[in-house]
């Protein structure tokens, strides 16, 4: 699989929405509880500072995506936040790593100085391992900070990386 990373195009929206909604419906990683419809997805992705997609160069299919946006405003506006989604059938192929690495480059190019993840679910071992391998620092643990799909609460671990 030959993965290329680029900014999203309007023609990507259907596949982006499908991948995004898959993660939302799993209910173990994203804070959102509602899936996106076509018009909501168009507005949501357009509102980000940057959306990157991982594309299989051979088939043209989207393998994953990320959204990048400010984490706060004003005096904290130099800190950004991002979310990543990989097609469930393609996980484990280092696509997430390519997305995070590209996101860090895009964030720096946009003038952000810090990339912060507010709510990495403690049991999301793959994401936590990736972030730590890429040099992110865990800030601590927030007990019961994430409502899982099954109704239980899981700890979250905020992370940051200076860009």
TrEMBL record:
* PANTHER family according to UniProt: ACETYLTRANSFERASE, GNAT FAMILY, N-ACETYLTRANSFERASE ACA1
Organism (species): Congzhengia minquanensis
Please name the GO terms that the record assigns under molecular function.
acyltransferase activity, transferring groups other than amino-acyl groups
Domain N-acetyltransferase, by residue range, is 3-160
Traced from the root, the source organism's taxonomic lineage reads: Bacteria, Bacillati, Bacillota, Clostridia, Eubacteriales
Entry protein name: GNAT family N-acetyltransferase
Kindly give the InterPro entries that the UniProt entry links to this protein: Acyl_CoA_acyltransferase (IPR016181), GNAT_dom (IPR000182), Mito_N-acetyltransferase (IPR052742)
